[in-house]
Design goal:
Number of helices: 10
Strand content: 15-25%
Shape: flat
Distance between the termini: 24 Å
Order of helices and strands: HHEEHEHHEEEEHHEHEEEHEH
Helix content: 25-40%
Oligomer: single chain
Number of strands: 12
Structural class: alpha+beta
Strand order of the largest sheet: 8-3-5-4-12
Largest sheet: 5 strands, antiparallel
């Protein structure tokens, strides 16, 4: 049976021409070189020997870079195991913070800065609501946040998924305060606070000269255009969607883990050396009767080159962020006897295979 094509095979065939004719930032070039070395002799490996015939097959090491679709299973399992060990025996909520698409040019020109602000603003909003007396919590809230930059159709869509425990740790009294009812906070109130805070941060960054307004963001270089954008966005209702996790929170956490170690174009999307799937029949928003959308892969293909060649995430805009749920080091064991809803089974981390046994 013929070997399945990988995304890196397509990159390898067009990388030289693309690198020669396109200006690429050094960090992006380093990532691509790591991907090109993945599963090759450049990274070393080991031999698999057949017990019957004695034949040997070389198996080369993975680059273990998170932008690479190969060899992410171990890293994903390790990350999931750490987060599972930190889950509390309480109900959880899944909160999504989404940036309007009109901000995409600004984010593209300031990814490190504005994606960092997305994390910061979402955290500020959650903590502000957790300390507000009207929600009857008044404590410290914890969460795990994962950044998504694309939707299923490979369209630019900046949003943050947060897994939030249903309660806070009140340091003053040393007790856990559970939330009341099926909702953590009111959706409209969260959306308004998130919008107002993010727009305030954008205005502050521009006034202090921190923002790059060239290239794809040159439309907003003029102050009046920038202020008009903020005014228009201030009149819109931004999308913030909090909902209770209906089942075991481990399911939601494992869903988020898939996106911490995932690239825009996975190996499964590659059809051949000249085409890849932009949508697949397995996607929720693609009707079964419709044919999957197929895109061309060439050196001049803007979608493919942007997704796999020139768009690695900056280090300061890592796809995941975790904030401790409480300052108490033994909170999980303490809560076992304090608050334990019967509909949620006790959480046990799944078994992880050590690297040496993989």
């Amino acid at each position: 049976m013929a070997a399945r094509l990988r995304a890196v095979d397509v990159i390898r065939c067009c990388w030289e021409n693309y690198n020669r004719n396109t200006r690429i930032v050094p960090e992006s070039a380093r990532v691509i070189r790591k991907l090109l070395d993945c599963r090759t002799a450049a990274l070393g490996g080991h031999l698999h020997r057949c017990d019957r015939c004695g034949g040997e097959v070389p198996v080369y090491n993975s680059c273990e870079n998170r932008h690479c679709p190969n060899g992410q299973t171990g890293a994903r399992m390790d990350w999931t195991q750490k987060r599972l060990s930190e889950l509390l025996p309480v109900p959880y909520f899944h909160v999504v913070f989404t940036l309007p698409h009109r901000l995409n040019p600004l984010v593209d020109a300031n990814r490190k800065l504005l994606l960092g602000e997305l994390f910061g603003t979402a955290g500020w909003t959650l903590q502000r609501f957790a300390r507000d007396p009207q929600w009857r919590l008044e404590g410290e809230l914890g969460y795990t946040a994962v950044l998504h930059t694309w939707n299923q159709k490979l369209q630019e869509h900046f949003h943050l998924h947060c897994l939030v425990p249903g309660g806070v740790w009140r340091k003053e009294t040393g007790e856990w305060i559970p939330c009341r009812g099926r909702w953590l906070f009111r959706k409209e109130s969260l959306a308004d606070a998130f919008r107002n805070r993010y727009l305030k941060r954008l205005r502050s960054l521009r006034q202090r000269g921190k923002m790059n307004l060239t290239g794809c963001a040159d439309t907003f270089a003029d102050e009046s255009s920038f202020e008009q954008l903020l005014a228009d966005l201030g009149r819109q209702r931004w999308i913030v969607y909090p909902k209770a996790v209906p089942k075991d929170p481990q399911t939601a956490l494992k869903y988020l883990a898939r996106y911490v170690f995932k690239t825009a174009i996975s190996n499964q999307r590659i059809i051949n050396m000249s085409a890849f799937f932009k949508t697949t029949p397995q996607m929720k928003n693609v009707q079964p009767a419709h044919s999957p959308e197929v895109c061309s892969v060439t050196e001049k293909s803007p979608l493919y080159t942007r997704l796999n060649l020139s768009r690695p995430e900056p280090h300061a805009a890592a796809p995941a962020h975790h904030q401790s749920s409480a300052p108490h080091p033994n909170l999980t064991s303490l809560l076992q006897g304090l608050y334990f809803p019967p509909q949620f089974p006790r959480l046990r981390p799944t078994r992880v295979i050590p690297h040496a046994a993989r």
